[in-house]
User: Fold this.
Amino acid sequence: MFVFQIGFAMRHFNKIWLFFLLAGLSGSAAAQVIVKGTVKDHKNNPIAGASISIKDSYDGGTSDSSGRYSFKTSEKGTKILVVSYIGYKSIEQPIKLEGSPITIDASLKEEISELTAVVLTAGTFEASDRKRASAVLDPIDIVTTASANGDITGALKTLPGAQQVGESEGLYVRGGTAAETKTFIDGTLVNNFFYSSVPNIAQFGRFSPFIFKGTVFSTGGYSALYGQALSSALILESIDLPEQSSANLGITVLSANAGYQHLAKNKQSSWGVSYGYTDLALAFAVIKQKQDYSKVPAYHNADANFRIKTSKTGILKYYGYLSSNKLGFTSNSIDSLGYFDKFAISTTNSYHNLAWKENLSKRWKVNTGVSYTNNKDEINSGMQDAGKNDVVLSGLEFKKFHLDTKGNYFNAKLVLEKKLKGLSAIRFGTEYNFSNDKLVYTAFNGQKFPSGLKEHIKSLFAEADVYATNDLALKGGLRFEHSSILDKTNIAPRLSLAYKLGKGSQASLAYGIFYQNPERRYLPSPNELSFMKATHYIVQYQKVLNQQSFRAEVFYKKYHNLVKTGNTGFTEAAINNNGFGDAKGIEFFWRDKKTIKNFDYWISYSYLDTKRDFLNFPFAITPNFAAKHTASVVTKKFSQKLKMNFNASYNYSSGRPYYNIGYDGSQYKFNDRGMIPDYHNVSFAINYLPFIGKQHPKSYAVYVFQVSNIFNIKQTYGYQYSYNGYRKEAIVPTSRMFVFIGAFISFGVDRSDEVINNSM
Amino acid sequence: MKKGFFVFLASCMMTVTFAQSEKYIKAMEALVPAVDTTRTMEGLTELSNSFERIANAEKTQWLPYYYAALCQVNMANSYFQLQQLDKIDPIMEKAEPLLIKAEELEKNNSEIFCLKKMFNTGKMMADPMNRYMTYGPAASQALETAKGLDAGNPRVYLLEGIDKYYTPEQYGGSKTQGKELFAEAAKKLGTFKPASSIHPSWGASQVKYFLTLE
Assistant:
């Protein structure tokens, strides 16, 4: 065997020798070949820094600022030349290296990628860590905006499009009511996003901003995935697995809370629980309130969550929430001097959300979720005399009542997505919203009026994202809804488009039709009702360059089929869908993190011109929730030396109209009308983060000191009238200035962003 | 005689493989010293492209991937100094797969963990307020691992020194301690023996620069 091998080698020896000889000769004898050319993009602009190489060899070059390149190679024969540059598609081209210089010019096409592609931004504000054009806010902005008081919608009110309405909760967007804004968590509708309404006192959102990693606030023209909202969609995405296990404690002048998050050792799953108790007794003892509280607001909140990675890309998330709260107060009665109006509410609410997302094979993706809400409100209203004894006054019997409401809501959503070439994709799915509201109204004489309402809304939707190039993106969608209570269907088309104008600048357009059921309080109606409808037209210009962003947006919104109410004897009830209206305006947003080091600010301004004829309005008027001019300035300054964050904000709104509309027996007419004064609010917050810069700190403490309405400016939200219409009284905040002090400590994980009380 | 031929043949074969790696080493030797001296964007781009060509041709050598990624990270640092923060992410997007390739080919190498530290710090610098919680710990962990793998690596002390030097005092930074670490890095550079002529040995010019700082 060995001999055979040697023999084989010997026989071939000559050939091998010859090979080496030739190789050596050719190496020394032949001159190197020069390869040169220019690299340009599809617009014929030179590309500097492109890599030009001969495949599987070391030889190649880099293009200079004019796109030119030139290099020598000792490779021979037919080879493949590769031209590549970041953000562009590489090209490969065969070349023949035969001694004479060759010139190869290359034109590279841009790769369609998330980093460079134009983004559909018309009507959209995004707060997320994704570096894209629509992300004008960072997640942390939600909690470090001084006027926000740690409330998600508080921060969003500093953005253009939202009104500074203080007498009731919710987002009033572009001439729309708060009911025209719907909130979604992980895709599914949230039914009781805010604590139950209290007359003339805006309530907070139920959910801590810290359970969300992404916030999209759409002021119009949003995707076909969302419906049943005439004006706006607030789309929240919950956090995934925590970075590590941790325990945290918070103590403030208003509340105490404790929580624990556990991350499994393999980092594939986590669970967490927390409990918080809020009691405003201490705060109300120091800061005088307008109302006299018989039951100072107290809240118990508990939540639990688990998150399980179902694959490399998939995650199953559960979030459950339980709360119970009570409050009761009396205030001087406007209807009868010397008497008091009494109001008390107690609420229990539970919310459960289960969501699953997963990337399937062949570029398919599934996003699905279900949520269930149970809400019980018990409201007691009445009057008291000077000695605080319950009384029933003749002619004002209606002021004494008891209201029991029970709501059960179930929502489910399924979205399937198929990614096509580049960033293009199609998406389709279905949504189901079920609500069961039960209500018992007990009148002053003990007579009970029960009512109930069940509603099923079934929806189908489909949309397509088309990215022809990095410069042009288009999203078209259709949504189809059926409401069981109206027994009607609607089809809503949506369209948006974005075009890149230059480096960092883009123009966007959005159009869409939006439908919404009449509010539940007008259902069931003795008269046949149909969907209310709004049509949006939005044009936007945006420029984002290195830490600075500018946005200007013009919009027009047309309302059709708004609900009109009429007097049906005792009460006001919906009579038809003949209401209408429109809203138009222009909005600006400017954010700058660059000009001054460690100083970040944004300015937003909205001009709104809107009129509508709905509910009991005698004719089309500017509604009482719409101000012509709204502006905010938000500033954030971080001092490294002091380890402190200084956040200040100023909110302004020009006077809103107010009306007292009364029924004179045949029609609705104005008994009184006017304008409330301009609204100003300056808030200030200091956060102290002593652990910053410590190597391996064991605990992370954040101390918060915050003052709202620091200059103690009188703010008027509107007027309320006595039943007979003779007396009016300003609706003002429950206290002018408010001071908040708190400490938050986390063990094991950095929660420095958790700077404001999350149970507030 | 037969045996003699075999030996001759075997030595011929050896020459073939050796010649190939000699070509590799020669190409690398021509580029590696430039890593310590190249500061311009154009120069770094060109250098990175050259390393990447070698990496793609060789496929099994970690060093060209490592150097290509290092040049990209150095570019990101330059953009940080120019405060062109929006340029950092696209560059890091190019550096990341190169870094991953290097680590696939060479596990548990102190130099790669040093580069990982630089990569994470660079990513953090693009948006410190929002990223320090994720990229900050990743950076310091990478540096700790690098030190654990080779306490004699001068680049560990250089990177530690830069951190200390530029961190304000109330955050645990110290110019004096930074300087001490630069001096330590200089000392280590004096005794450090790279595994070969093309293994990482950079840092001298930076250390010299930092030692002249006040």
In short: Residues 2-31 of chain B form the longest helix (30 residues).
